[in-house]
Structure formats: structure tokens, C-alpha cells
Amino acid sequence: MPRSLWSAFAADRLDHRALQHIIQRHFPSGSQPGLREVVYPGDGEHAVKLLFSKDDALTGIEAGPCLTAALEATLTAALNEALIDTGPHVVRQVRFADHKVTGSWRYRNHFQIAPIPKHAPQLNCLLGDHPFILEVKITGSKDGFLTSQRVADSTRTAELLLAGLVNNSVRHLTARPMYGYWVRLPEDNQTVYLQPDYHYADTPASNDEFSQITTPAPVAFAGDLFGPYGMTAGAPFSIPHELTEVLDMYYALAADTQNQFLRSCYWLRQANRFFLESFSAAFMAVITAAEALFDTAPAEKCSACKQPRYRLRSSFAKLLDTYVPLAQTTSGGYGGKPSFRARLKHLYDTRSQITHGSDLRGWDTAYGFTPLQSRDDNDLRTLLRIMPFALANWLQEQHKGKAHEEERMESGGVTESSRETPMP
Q: Residue 330: left (phi > 0), alpha (psi -120 to 50), or beta?
């Protein structure tokens, strides 16, 4: 039986992505000889075999026939060195949003947003890629890759949380590998093919602490920000009054639930990115952001075919009706038009028609200004605007459920609600 290297390679203490990267940089090649295994080196007899589950989780590390004592010692030393922390580091990167960041806001010891310096390139229009500084604090490692990975993970999390809970236009500058963009240079009116980039003199370097807050970012209640007249063109990037409390709820969740929430934030951000390019893709993305929060357990089985029935159409309507104050944030209907709330299930039907190829909607069609296109446009804009309500209130519900479960466990599985006599 092959010898396990799980403990020797610190697999119970080290991030598995970093572990694999450290292993593979000691070999000239790697290969996948089996369905769920990767070996190093990839040619001839191997020295190390990594075993994975069907979900790509690392489940085992085995010594191969050509693993020498010297090579094992080298690998062990490199992996143990990665476990040595080098202290806190604050990393600063440029991100973008449709609204200009005019002040700073910090979430505890995790991240901070700040305005771009006055001497940096700025937009002279109301909406567009307004640059701002995103600062994240991580714990560094003696292994450079692991430090870079922690920066990437923390930056991604902060970016998605801001996109999901504050403004879905928050994004990084997207490069297209092997592709650029045709642009016209203002100096000589020449057209050239370039990759996107943003840089300015004195770009802030990393250090141990967040930058000092001199001007706070504007703060407003969620009802004002995400209501019918919130965050109009030209308005500064504003922070929901309840954001710190909501983020506390996110960070108190289990890792799986955090990942579920970030998936919803991801699709909401993608809906914003798709908006100008494809109505249909944007509509699918914003509905998918809601679907990511569904309880995936089937409600019942079909009496005819015995297959599980997930009732996604009803789940979508219930999610928005439960977590969004629709009466205050959406159209109540007029002139014979049904209210937004009355059409929730219809919105999911529209998404299904697009997803399964039976329709294109909005400006993806060849039609001009029509009642249906007008309603589609309003529906998409409304969904993009109100989804932060749903995400924040969904987090609150998860937090309540977690607190209730902890109370139940502390009381030996009995809570006040469970002592109540059930109704006959």
C-alpha cells in the first residue's frame, strides 16, 4: 500500500491550492493518469500522487516509487516554510465603479475603500469606470505564492461583497488574454490595438496598516439607496447605513454558506457587466443571483413521475417577496398594468424562455420601442436595483437561523419554541 504523505506535507494545516503549487514547482511536469489523480513528475515513474474527490477536493497524498529521501526532505521543508507567517500586510489595488468614490469607508480589519488621489487619471463624465482604491489586510507567508493567493482571495471577497451589498457595478479592469481593444488615440487620431491598463504616479505600495481616513464616504439607509430614486447618475458612491452589521453576519457564517452568498454576489455583478452588451444575458444573470440563495431541497415528489419537484418559479417569487420591501421599492401598477410584485413568477418564466433558447428579450431583438421592450427594460433595471435588499435580508435570516441552532444546542436540543404545545 502506498505511503501517505498527508501529515508530512502539512495537508491538515496548509491551503491545498498552495500545497499543490509548491509541489508542482519542484517538478518539470505533471500528468493525470487516472480520473481523480494527478502525479508528479508527469513522465515515467512518479514521486508524488495527489488524490481528489469528485468535487476536486484534495483527499490524499501518496509517495511514489521515485520519491527519494532527499526530495521528500526538500518538499517537506518548502511546505513547512509556507506555514511561517510574516505578519499583517495591507495591499492596495485599483477597482472601478459606475459612481465616483468621494470618501473612505472601512470594514473592521478586513478591507477599506478610498478615493483615488487627485493627481491620478479621473473620469469627466457621470457614469463610467470611476477608479477607486480597494485595500485588504492579509497575513503574509514566507512563501510568495501563498501570500499572493491570500491577497487574491481577500480582494475577490471584498469586491464581491461590495458588488452584492452596495453597488453591483464594482469591478476590476478586465483584460482579454490574447485580445485587446481597438482604440483611437486622442493625440494623433490614430487607431491602435491595446490592452486595458490603469496606472498613475506614486501608486500606493503595501504596508502594515490601512491608509488614514480623512473624508468619510457618504452613508445612507438602504431604503434610500435601493429605492426608486436611489443612486442616480452622478450620485457619489454611498454606503448602506447597515453595512457593518450585515457584513458581521456574513463573516459569522459557515464557509459553505459564505460561498453560496458570494456566488449570488458574483452573478449580480455579472448582470451589471452584461447590461450594455446583452439584455438576455443580464436578465439570466440577475435571476441566477436570486437562484443561488434558494433552498435546493425538493419540496415534494411528482405524483406521476416520482421525480423531485423543486418549485423554482415559486421559490423566486417567495425570495423577493420575503426579503425585499416590494411595495416601497417597485411599481405598484397603473393604467391597467399589473404591479411588479404581481409579475414575479412571470419574470422567472421570462428567464426560463431565454435560458432554454426559446426567446431573446429586450434590445437583443430586432424590434424597436414597444410596450414589451419597455416593460423588460424596467424589469431588469428594477431587479438590479433591489437585489442588494434581498442579499442583505437573506444574510440576516441565515444569522437568525444560526443563532437559533446554537441556542438549541446549548439548551440540550430544547428551545422555548420546541416546548410549545403543537396545535391540534
A: beta
The rounded distance, in Å, linking the Cα atoms of 341 and 347 is 10
Amino acid at 101: V
CA distances, 137 to each of 43, 171, 416 (Å): 41, 19, 41
DSSP string, 113-147: EEEPPTTS----SSSS-EEEEEEEEEEEESSHHHH
Q: What is the Cα–Cα distance from 37 to 333, expressed in whole angstroms?
A: 57
Q: Over the range 200-229, which residues count as b (16 or more CB within 10 Å of their CB) and which as e?
A: eeeebeeeeebeeeeeebeebebeebbbee
Q: How far apart are CA 323 and CA 167, in angstroms?
A: 18
DSSP bridge pairs for 138? 89
Strands 48-52 and 37-40 turn out to be antiparallel
Give the CA distances from residue 378 to residues 246, 341, 386, 418, in Å, rounded to whole numbers and listed in that order. Answer: 28, 13, 12, 45
3-state secondary structure of 201: coil
The sheet carrying 31-34 orders its strands as 31-34, 37-40, 48-52, 58-63
Query: At 411, phi and psi to the nearest 5?
Result: -95, 15
Sign of the torsion formed by the C-alpha atoms of 80, 81, 87 and 90: negative
Encode the chain (424 residues) as per-residue pLDDT tens digits. Answer: 899 999 999 999 999 999 999 999 999 999 999 999 999 999 999 999 999 999 999 999 999 999 999 999 999 999 999 999 999 999 999 999 999 999 999 999 999 999 999 999 999 888 889 999 999 999 999 999 999 999 999 999 999 999 999 999 999 988 777 788 899 998 889 999 998 889 888 876 778 899 999 999 999 999 889 887 777 888 899 999 999 999 999 999 999 999 999 999 999 999 999 998 999 999 999 999 999 998 766 556 655 554 555 567 888 888 888 999 888 888 776 666 778 888 888 888 888 889 898 888 888 887 777 888 888 888 899 999 999 999 999 999 998 876 666 666 677 765 544 444 333 3
Reading the block at residue 161, the C-alpha cell is 461583497
Distance from C-alpha of 215 to C-alpha of 104, rounded to nearest angstrom? 6
d(CA 372, CA 394): 31
C-beta of residue 168 within 8 angstroms of C-beta of residue 268: yes
Residue 66 contacts residue 18 (beta carbons within 8 Å): no
Residue 269 to residues 179, 191, 287, Cα–Cα distance (Å): 22, 31, 12
